[in-house]
Structure formats: structure tokens, C-alpha cells
Design goal:
The complex is a heterodimer of chains A (about 200) and B (about 210). Chain A has helices at about 15-30, 50-55, 65-75, 90-100, 135-145, 145-155, 180-195; strands spanning about 1-5, 35-40, 80-85, 110, 120, 125-130, 165-170. Chain A is an alpha/beta fold and about 200 residues long. Chain A has one domain: Flavodoxin domain (Rossmann fold), CATH 3.40.50. In chain A, the strands form two sheets. A five-stranded parallel β-sheet of chain A has the order 2-1-3-6-7, sandwiched between helices. In chain A, strands 4-5 form a two-stranded antiparallel ribbon. In chain A, a hairpin with an 8-residue loop joins strand 4 (about 110) and strand 5 (about 120). The N and C termini of chain A lie close together (about 10 Å). Chain B has seven helices and seven strands; from the N terminus they run E-H-E-H-H-E-H-E-E-E-H-H-E-H. In chain B, helix 1 (about 30-45) runs parallel beside helix 7 (about 195-210). Classes of the chains: A alpha/beta (about 200), B alpha/beta (about 210). At the A-B interface, helix 2, helix 4 and helix 6 of A face helix 2, helix 4, helix 5 and helix 6 of B.
Chain lengths: ~200, ~210
């Protein structure tokens, strides 16, 4: 399977970098063809420009500034996102990838006569997320209602194939993590992506 | 009919003018969002508040947290170096207003980057022994003015409006204990009508007149 891995963390020796390596290595070992998009390394600019905003709804013209990124999405059969949860959500660089690359006419279609939007990325049949949060699980789940998880699994995943399998792996309480909890999480990530 | 719904809305008793920081995040100066931002600034100034409008796009705010910033993130003595002027503007704020379009069920990346790079330990909150203490206790009023492409039923019912919780829970808990927060949202902007836009502008004006 062709899998697009999208990774967003600025520090090379961070725990998220280790998660990212685990994801890429595990997928490659399992025989998948991995396209590894490291947004920081690519110097991705997350702010949608005025020109992009003007043509946002013009199908065909709206992809000009992000052509290679659009092609990566359209070629993918699986999508894996790897990032730290900052301010309850995706890091700005990854949020910008959604804003600029997940365009109408590509990732979704708006029926001109009204009605629900239709998914555009039905080529994507697997959707995996590996993230970390500083806060404990009960705070994220019970008080904040998991904002990042809702955005990705309820807002974004429905633009993929209707039967796309998905999973969400999160190491909570990173501020209190120990070598043991981190090793256990990497093991969990490995197992999940072996079955990808 | 005293105090009923038909009673004319009386302007709130004049109180001390506040210093308000308006964060605006839209690339186009001729957009509906730009009009909302202008409306906000005019309303606040008419009420006697002083307004600092931080136009993230035109001021070329850098959204991406760098490796240096990330490595210094938890050290309040070092983590503000790259955003000193933004921090100074935020610290003066007694009111905070955000005006932005909701994209992909969240704030635009440029505003997300502001939260990440400016609302940091030592500024927005203090982390001691694993517990969080509010750092924005100088902010007594909050308002969020936003537009959604999706309909209200998709935003609320399907996705659960996550960004609203981020702001009204995640951000508000870092402000003054009794901070007044207003949430003003216009939905279904993938199919906008002039009438609904107009009505929303009136609503923003009327809410800010008593904010």
C-alpha cells in the first residue's frame, strides 16, 4: 500500500521524532511504499496566502501553489499523521497543511445545489494518528472533549473512503512521562502500524 | 412589561475603558472577515476602549515554532526572546478579541501559531509541580467572532465544535476568574447570503455595545 506519512516537529531528537521514525520504519518493514513528508524539513509555509484564498473555491485553479502536496494526497492509499498536540490541536505547520492542501475539488466536493459535502479522497483507506499531549487523559477527554481527535477523526477522516479504517494513538501526560511510558508507547505505535 | 424581551436594550452603565487587543487572521483585506474586524474596532473605540489591532497577516506574524523556541519552551527566562513584542502587547490587554474564519474546524494556521508561540509558559500560564496557574488574569473580557463554511448541524452535531471548547475552556481558564466571554459565530458560509452576513454584522455590533 502507498502510505503518506506527515510529520510535524521542529526538534530532531524529540520523542515525536522517535515516534515518526518508528512509524516510517514499521511501515517500510511491512512492505508498504512510504512517502515521508516532514513539514519542518520541507520548510512548509502554513499561512494560506491572499492569492490562494481568492482562488480557494475555483476548482482547478486552487491547487497551483501546492501541486506536489496535492499529488502526494491523491496517490496515497493510507495516511499517517505524526505530531505533538499543542494548544489542544495540530501544530500550526500541520494545520496549515490542512488549510492549504485539503482543497475543494480535491479532498471534498460541494454540491452546487446545496446538501452535504461529498468526500474526495476515497483513495485513502487507512487513517492512522500518533500524537502526544502534555495534559493527562482525563483532562483532555472529560473537560476538553479531545479537540484534535474530533477535528481529525470526525471532521477530516470522513473525506477519505467511507470504510477507511482508522486509529488514534496518544501518549498523554508527556510532562510526567518516564522512559518506561515512552518505550511502551513506541511499542504500541509499532504494533498498530504493523497491522496498517 | 418591565425587563421583558421587548424592553429596549439599555447600554451597560459606563465602566472604566479597557485596553483591548484584537487578533485578526484573514489574508484578504476586502473579505467579509475584514469587515467584521473593522466593525469590531469601530465599536470598541466608540465605547471608549483603546484598541490594539494585531493584524497577523499584514504584520507578517511567523506561525511556525522554531527548534530553538521549542527547546526553550519550558524556561520562562528564555522562551519569550523570539516573541517579545507580541508578549508585550498581550500583557497590556484587559480585553481580548479574536476575529477569524474557521477553517477545517479550527483557527487558521497563522492564529494557531500565535497561540503556540505567544501563549507560552510564563506568559499565559505557569506550570508548577505539574499544575497550571493562570497567567492572563489581566484579561477580563473575551470575545470570539468567527465564520464557518459548514452548517451549524455539522459543526455542532458531527464534529462537536472543538475550537469553541479550546477557546471557552482552554483559553478562558487562563484569564481572570470572572472573565466575560462571548462567542459569535456565523455558519454555512460556503453558501453565504448578503442578508445573513448583514444580520451577523448587526449582531456583532449589538453584542459589543454591551460587552
Amino acid at each position: 500500500m502507498r502510505v503518506l506519512v506527515v510529520y510535524a516537529h521542529p526538534v530532531n531528537d524529540s520523542f515525536n521524532a522517535a515516534v515518526h521514525r518508528t512509524v516510517v520504519d514499521t511501515l517500510t518493514e511491512a512492505g508498504h511504499a512510504v512517502t515521508d513528508l516532514d513539514l519542518y524539513e520541507a520548510g512548509f509555509d502554513p499561512a494560506m496566502s491572499d492569492e490562494e484564498r481568492r482562488v480557494y473555491h475555483s476548482i482547478g485553479a486552487n491547487t497551483a501553489a501546492v501541486e506536489p502536496y496535492v499529488a502526494q494526497l491523491q496517490e496515497a492509499e493510507g495516511l499517517a499523521l505524526c505530531f505533538p498536540t499543542w494548544w489542544y490541536g495540530l501544530p500550526a505547520i500541520l494545520k496549515g497543511w490542512l488549510d492549504r492542501v485539503w482543497l475543494p475539488g480535491i479532498t471534498f466536493h460541494l454540491p452546487p445545489d446545496g446538501g452535504r459535502i461529498r468526500p474526495g479522497l476515497t483513495n485513502i483507506r487507512r487513517f492512522g494518528v500518533a500524537t502526544t499531549t502534555g495534559s493527562p487523559w482525563w483532562f483532555m477527554r472529560l473537560y476538553m472533549a479531545e479537540p484534535a481527535k474530533r477535528v481529525l477523526l470526525r471532521g477530516i477522516r470522513p473525506l477519505c473512503a467511507p470504510d477507511a479504517k482508522h486509529f488514534w494513538l496518544c501518549h498523554y501526560s508527556m510532562d510526567k512521562s518516564t522512559p518506561e511510558t515512552r518505550a511502551r508507547h513506541l511499542e504500541q505505535v509499532k504494533r498498530a502500524f504493523q497491522r496498517f | 412589561m418591565i425587563g421583558g424581551h421587548d424592553a429596549p436594550r439599555r447600554p451597560k452603565a459606563p465602566d472604566t475603558p479597557l485596553h483591548v487587543l484584537v487578533l485578526w487572521a484573514h489574508p484578504l483585506e476586502d473579505s467579509f472577515n475584514a469587515r467584521l474586524c473593522r466593525t469590531v474596532v469601530e465599536c470598541l473605540e466608540q465605547r471608549g476602549h483603546t484598541v490594539d489591532c494585531h493584524d497577523l497577516y499584514r504584520e507578517r506574524f511567523q506561525a511556525v515554532m522554531t527548534a530553538e523556541e521549542r527547546l526553550a519552551y519550558h524556561d520562562p527566562d528564555r522562551n519569550q526572546a523570539a516573541v517579545a513584542s507580541e508578549v508585550a502587547r498581550l500583557r497590556r490587554a484587559e480585553g481580548l478579541v479574536m476575529v477569524y474564519p474557521t477553517w477545517n474546524f479550527g483557527v487558521p494556521a497563522i492564529l494557531k501559531g500565535y497561540l503556540e508561540r505567544v501563549l507560552i509558559p510564563g506568559v499565559a500560564f505557569h506550570l508548577t509541580d505539574g499544575s497550571t496557574r493562570a497567567g492572563l488574569t489581566h484579561v477580563r473580557r473575551l470575545a470570539f467572532i468567527t465564520t464557518y463554511g459548514a452548517t451549524r448541524s455539522v459543526v455542532k452535531g458531527l464534529v462537536g465544535d472543538p475550537v469553541r471548547k479550546v477557546m471557552l475552556r482552554g483559553l478562558r481558564r487562563l484569564c481572570a476568574r470572572d472573565a466575560d466571554a462571548r462567542w459569535l459565530a456565523l455558519y454555512d458560509m460556503n453558501r453565504p447570503t448578503a442578508q445573513r452576513c448583514e444580520r451577523f454584522v448587526r449582531r456583532v455590533e449589538s453584542v459589543l455595545a454591551t460587552w
